[in-house]
Amino acid sequence: MNSRTLIVGSLLLSFAGHLLARDKTDVLVMKNGDRMSCEVKGLEAGILQVSFDYIDGTTLVDWSKVARVESKQLFLVKTEDGSVYTGTLSTLTTSSERPVKIEVAESPAQGIEIDQPQIISLTPTSDNFWQRFNGEISSGITYSKGNQSTVYSLGSETAYVRERWGVRANFDSNLSSSNGATASTRNELTVIATRLMPWKNWFYASMTDFLQSSVQGISLQSSLGGGVGRYLKNTNRASISLIGGGAWQNTNYQPSSAPVSGHNLAAGWVYADAKLFKFSKTNLNLTAGLLPAISDPGRIRLNANASYYVKLFSDLKWNISFYANWDNRPPTGFSSNDYGTSSGLSWTFGLR
């Protein structure tokens, strides 16, 4: 697998997820009495995303200030306790002292009532396969005249979500070149699939990862793992999950003068994912995967990624990202770590 293949594949996944617009027939009523006809795009991080016929782009609304919402669009509705439902949205009449109750109706005869503060996510869904995707594409470039160095970065995230399961694919590519030095490249594609268990906030998880790093001399590192995870925190301000399980890893190194051993490893797998939000302005995403080797006791590998986003306007954000790979016992003559930062612009599609 080369970087060109990864890039093309990632872009195809991303653009396939473009969501088609629909009629602005949803109804939104605010607690101050304002009533609007709109299209509800979704809810994430305490922000209700809506669009209007007479306003260009997407408008962000504080979910806690909403008194009533009506929509015939199908949504995946996720609550703080980890429950997930599918259906259209309507608001039940309650007294002013009681929390607003949202009815999620899978059919006219079957619905469930949920207190509005308990709802942390509304994701549009459809019988149309392509309209179930959402994600983002980011890119950046940095140039320095002093040493004629250039750093390129390209990344994308695409998610496919259903009521009980979902798949998320992340791709990151970095190329750094400077006058008089060999260009360094790093490409990584990670796919994580999850399925909810009968117990709330618990889920099964599987992981597939492909890594290429010229700094560490890795031609291709393939990882395959699985385990059980739990959402430790699930609110409109933060989402934190932890996964524990096992993994297998195969590493092909670039040719060297010394013989290389330890291509295959059986290892434990610990994966943490944290997302922190601030209404309509910023969000921080952190992920880290730890693989303590079982077949080579004492050897540990770590992958970590962090991205900080600042909203500019509409679906455009500025971001700064950090990545790091670490191996405490690399083959002789090979680097134990690779790390770097990049910044650029991100464009989101669907609900992100």
Give structural notes.
- The protein has one helix and 21 strands.
- By secondary structure, it is mainly beta.
- It has a twelve-stranded antiparallel β-barrel.
- Mean pLDDT is 83; it is low at 1-20.
Oligomer: single chain
Give the spatial strand order of the biggest sheet.
10-11-12-13-14-15-16-17-18-19-20-21
> What's the number of helices?
1
Structural Rg: 22 Å
Helix/strand layout:
Elements: H1 3-16, E1 26-30, E2 35-44, E3 47-52, E4 55-62, E5 66-79, E6 84-92, E7 101-107, E8 110-115, E9 119-124, E10 133-144, E11 149-161, E12 165-177, E13 184-196, E14 202-213, E15 218-234, E16 238-253, E17 264-278, E18 282-292, E19 300-313, E20 316-327, E21 337-349
Antiparallel strand pairs: 1-2, 1-5, 2-3, 3-4, 5-6, 5-9, 6-7, 7-8, 10-11, 10-21, 11-12, 12-13, 13-14, 14-15, 15-16, 16-17, 17-18, 18-19, 19-20, 20-21
Record keyword descriptors for this entry.
352 residues, nine-stranded antiparallel sheet, globular, single chain, 4% helix, twelve-stranded antiparallel beta barrel, 66% strand, mainly beta
Task: Give a short overview.
The chain has one helix and 21 strands. It has one helix spanning 3-16, and strands at 26-30, 35-44, 47-52, 55-62, 66-79, 84-92, 101-107, 110-115, 119-124, 133-144, 149-161, 165-177, 184-196, 202-213, 218-234, 238-253, 264-278, 282-292, 300-313, 316-327, 337-349. A hairpin with a 7-residue loop joins β18 and β19 (300-313).
